[in-house]
Design goal:
By secondary structure, this protein is an alpha/beta fold. Helices cover 34% and strands 19% of the residues. It has 15 helices and 19 strands. The strands form 5 sheets. A 7-stranded mixed β-sheet has the order 10-16-15-14-13-11-12, with helices on both faces. A hairpin with a 3-residue loop joins strand 1 and strand 2. Helix 3 runs antiparallel to helix 13, helix 4 runs parallel beside helix 13 and helix 13 packs across helix 14. The longest helix is centred in the N-terminal third of the chain and has 26 residues.
Length: 481
């Protein structure tokens, strides 16, 4: 494995070498000034993020709503226990009444008493491509959302507010998808083997070469599942005696991968450079607990765009700290690849950074590319190491060939290799739509989170009653709360 900034991996161990990057970064009042290697003029990227606090009356009514819901939940549980109210929840069989329960009753308290009341707002089955408009299967409940039945009616042209089909490439079949159809006819749907056995196709090699070219790195490796790309590869990079510094708002796949690795995990405050630097400084000064030996490796885990907050990583500052303390940087670009930067190359391009500044690139094909799976990219030694040691490569089925072809088609479109500018136009239109949507929501008085350039736009309702009020509008609008 290799440090893209000049370090290499031998037998799974990261080794720093001299820094060949001549770029300099400095930060002042939230502005990032970068002198780039290619001699271009200094580049300024303002950090404009909003995490507006709710007004006092909203907070009061929110806590009051949850308080009342909790009280009525206890009352209803009491009535259910005494048989006064019918219990629709799953219960243990009489033969198992003396067994230790698989889960405590309170763990399901809010599912029974709050989520069930507004359950119809989630998991709504759609029956068309997830474009700007799609079709929804109508369903009704006769027992207060414990079960649903379909009426057979299709609600047409519902506004899609919850998909991460950022560039609209997860669309209905058209002539541009002929290559995907051809791949299906040539290779079939599945591979039926792992990458370590007979599961590596020429399509996988073509896709990996294209990903490396797209990211301007030496090599890349693709995997059939985005979640497993994090959870199954982080344990191959770090282990016992290593230290992981993880942003407190990292995705569950990063958290799971960190826990499975066996490395020591310490959390720093979200996008807080002072918190991260303190942990780095302490790690270097004090080393491992008890023995005080130096850490074998220090790995910083961050996301490009944080999927629940809509904020963008402070990449230049983190790279500066990473270099200062000789740590390694792993960037999850699940939401930022294809959606950030002038040509959709992610947070690295967004900040005009050198790819060698990031040790491990990770991303998924489920968002901007309208497909599934993920990738790890960086130096060739890194990728070669993961080909041999990745749990996903050893045990998981390879990516479906038609899926690989869809990603190739989408990536070529974004890169302009199809001979058109449609991909670039989609990226630019997404950026324009993002700024307009965020601006109009703010003008209308909604509380939204995140960076003004982020296509992930969290809109906060706060009060649970508002979620229930949203239900009548679900006939026309479907969203993720």
């Amino acid at each position: 494995m290799v440090d893209p900034g000049g370090g290499a991996v031998c037998n799974g161990t990261l080794h720093n070498q001299s820094d060949h990057c001549h770029r300099k970064n400095c930060t002042r009042n939230g502005m990032v000034k970068e002198a780039q290697q290619n001699g271009n003029s200094n580049f300024y990227k303002p950090v404009v993020e909003s995490f507006e606090e709710a007004p006092l009356h909203v907070m009061v009514f929110t806590y009051l709503g949850y308080g009342i819901g909790t009280l009525f939940g206890y009352l209803r549980d009491f009535l259910r226990n005494w048989g006064i109210e019918k219990c629709n929840a799953a219960i243990e069989r009489e033969e198992q009444k003396d067994f230790v329960p698989l889960y405590q009753s309170f763990e399901n308290f809010y599912t029974r008493n709050l989520y069930m009341r507004i359950r119809d707002n989630w998991n709504r089955p759609i029956c068309s491509a997830p474009g700007a408009l799609f079709d929804v299967m109508e369903r009704v409940s006769d027992d207060y959302n414990w079960t649903f039945r379909f009426t057979g009616r299709i609600i047409k042209d519902v506004i899609n507010m919850g998909s991460y089909n950022f560039l609209g490439l997860a669309a209905k079949y058209d002539d541009s998808m002929k290559t995907v159809k051809d791949a299906l006819e040539t290779y079939g749907l599945g591979v039926g083997s792992t990458r370590h056995e007979m599961g590596t196709l020429d399509k996988h090699k073509e896709l990996e070469d294209l990903v490396a070219k797209f990211l301007n790195v030496e090599a890349a490796m693709v995997f059939g599942m985005g979640f497993a790309t994090n959870s199954m590869n982080i344990p191959a990079l770090v282990g016992k005696g290593c230290l992981i510094l993880s942003d407190e708002l990292n995705h569950a796949s990063l958290v799971l991968g960190a826990r499975l690795s066996g490395a020591t995990i310490r959390i720093f405050k979200h996008n807080n450079m002072q918190s991260l630097e303190k942990l780095l400084r302490d790690a270097v000064i004090y080393g491992q607990p008890r023995t005080r030996r130096a850490w074998k490796k220090i790995l910083i885990l961050v996301e490009g765009i944080y999927s629940m907050e809509g904020s963008i990583v402070r990449l230049p500052q983190i790279v500066a700290l990473k270099k200062k303390y000789k740590a390694y940087l792993y960037v999850d670009e699940a939401h930022s690849i294809g959606s950030l930067g002038p040509t959709g190359r992610g947070v690295m391009e967004f900040f005009a950074m050198d790819p060698r500044d990031i040790d491990v690139f990770m991303g998924t094909f489920t968002k901007s590319f309208g497909a599934s799976g993920g990738y790890i990219a960086g130096r060739k030694d890194l990728v070669d190491y993961l080909r041999a040691h990745s749990h996903s490569a050893a045990y998981a089925t390879s990516m479906s060939p038609p899926i690989a072809e869809q990603i190739i088609r989408a990536m070529k479109l974004i890169m302009g290799l199809d001979g058109t500018t449609q991909g670039l136009q989609r990226v630019q239109q997404l950026a324009e739509n993002t700024r307009y949507f965020r601006q109009r929501l703010s003008e209308m008085g909604f509380i939204i989170y995140g960076n003004e350039e982020s296509p992930v736009v969290p809109l906060l309702l706060y009060m649970p009653a508002k979620v229930a009020f949203w239900k009548p509008w679900m006939r026309w609008v479907t969203s993720c709360m």
